Amino acid sequence: MRCGGFRHFTTELDTLERFPERCAFARELKYLDEDLRQLVFKSHRIVFAVAKEEKCVHVVYVRHASRRAVGEPGGDEVDE
Fold first, then answer.
1. What's phi and psi for 15, nearest 5 deg?
2. In this structure, is residue 80 part of a structural domain?
3. pLDDT tens for each residue of 6-65
4. Is 6 helix (H, G, I), strand (E, B) or coil?
5. Per the CB 3.0–4.6 Å rule, which of 16, 71, 73, 76 could disulfide with 20?
6. How far is it, in rounded angstroms, from Cα 70 to Cα 21?
7. Residues 28, 37: contact at Cβ < 8 Å?
8. Buried b / exposed e along 35-66 (16+ C-beta atoms within 10 A)
9. Residue 73 belongs to a domain
10. Within a domain: 74
11. Which domain holds residue 17?
12. Considering its fold, how many domains does the chain have in total?
């Protein structure tokens, strides 16, 4: 990331603290049995789960937006 890029990235992550449900459901919702959401930051997707009982967000992974969703047929990941 360019100078200051990481700071912008962490600022975006911090925005999830107040209202994470504003983010769209992740493409992985189609393939995985998990309620995942995504926040798009530049060319990447931050995929996360909202733990309402714990009042926190768990970042599952950060993935380049051009890559297939985890669990999507034809991908290189094996989840089972």
1. -65, -20
2. no
3. 888 889 889 998 899 999 999 999 888 889 999 999 999 999 999 988 889 999 999 999
4. helix
5. 16
6. 21
7. no
8. ebbbbebeebbbbbebeeeeeebeebeebeee
9. no
10. no
11. 5-64
12. 1
